Inverse folding.
């Protein structure tokens, strides 16, 4: 394999892994991989990473990790578009929000998200976090809310069911004492 | 002793709708020298980005969001300060009531304290303030704008938000010590 081929192949690993190469480029890449086991191994590593990232939305991040990530402030994050004082995107929720808002292709593709896409993903993430805590507040008041309350709050309560039930199960440290 | 008070959401006209919104600085709780453990600031620009996402899946839902001006969230761990947080919630409740805000939920028992207030302009919600404390953490949220809880519920049901919510696991708060209560 020539140095030119090697240099070209190095730039095509991610595209080979996510299947975005043209037919001709793919044949050329396969030939290069046949000749260079190390290159083939790197393509396989990239594929494994892609598979792992695809599973992010389905596999819960360990709670302890969530908590540690939540504590990372964004003191050094540059201000952009007037958005400031936000917390660093935690690995899991940020990935999830990006995937949810922009699609898996942006996240796994050969290009990173644009500034606008990143801002959109951050907005989805922050809105989601705010709504999760709204839901938690509703859960705290769950027993106290009755039909006299505005139906909008009840709608939110109805919407929140699945997540709250899981949070309750996950978060139960034993004592839920009610008299 | 358990006190549970629930108010109906009665509609009446409040002038100067946005005046009280933002009047409560949840960054500075009197008597408490601690930073929030979680902070979210969605300003109008960030909401614009969010609307752009929602526009792609539900143009009508995106319209509901156009009246939303901002969301601020602060979450504090109670630590040793549970009493101070509850005092602050009670103080802000008095201020909200004095400013004409409507109590939607006011619930308090030995372990939790939840207040949800709405500011109404004619039949339109122009702001919501949520304060909640469960013995482990205190949650303070301002939702500024003409959006109802029902609208928020609809937005939560849309794919990007629903999926993100589905994947979101609430961080486990540090359990408060019994003596804090």
């Amino acid at each position: 394999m020539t140095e030119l081929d090697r240099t070209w192949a190095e730039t095509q690993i991610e595209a080979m892994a996510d299947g975005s190469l043209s037919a001709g480029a793919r044949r050329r890449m396969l030939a290069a991989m046949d000749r260079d086991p190390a290159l083939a191994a790197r393509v396989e590593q990239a594929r494994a990473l892609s598979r792992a990232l695809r599973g992010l939305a389905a596999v819960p991040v360990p709670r302890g990790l969530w908590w540690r990530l939540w504590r990372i402030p964004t003191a050094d994050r540059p201000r952009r578009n007037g958005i400031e004082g936000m917390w660093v995107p935690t690995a899991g929720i940020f990935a999830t929000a990006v995937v949810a808002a922009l699609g898996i292709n942006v996240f796994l593709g050969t290009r990173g998200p644009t500034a606008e896409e990143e801002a959109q993903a951050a907005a989805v993430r922050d809105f989601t976090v705010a709504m999760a805590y709204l839901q938690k507040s509703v859960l705290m008041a769950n027993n106290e809310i009755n039909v006299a309350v505005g139906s909008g709050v009840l709608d939110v309560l109805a919407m929140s069911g699945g997540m709250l039930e899981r949070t309750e199960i996950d978060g139960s440290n034993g004592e839920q004492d009610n008299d | 002793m358990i006190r549970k008070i629930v108010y109906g959401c009665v509609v009446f006209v409040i002038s100067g709708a946005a005046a009280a919104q933002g009047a409560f600085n949840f960054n500075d709780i009197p008597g408490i020298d601690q930073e929030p453990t979680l902070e979210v600031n969605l300003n109008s620009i960030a909401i614009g980005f969010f609307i752009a996402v929602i526009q792609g899946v539900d143009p009508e839902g995106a319209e509901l969001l156009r009246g939303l001006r901002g969301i601020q969230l602060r979450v504090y761990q109670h630590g040793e300060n549970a009493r101070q947080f509850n005092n602050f919630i009670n103080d802000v409740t008095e201020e909200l009531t004095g400013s004409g805000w409507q109590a939607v939920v006011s619930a308090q028992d030995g372990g939790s304290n939840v207040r949800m207030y709405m500011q109404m302009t004619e039949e339109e919600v122009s702001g919501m303030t949520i304060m909640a404390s469960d013995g482990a953490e205190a949650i303070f949220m301002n939702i500024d704008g003409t959006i109802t809880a029902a609208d928020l519920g609809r937005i939560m049901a849309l794919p990007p938000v629903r999926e993100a919510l589905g994947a979101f696991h609430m961080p486990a708060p540090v359990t408060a010590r019994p003596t804090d209560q």
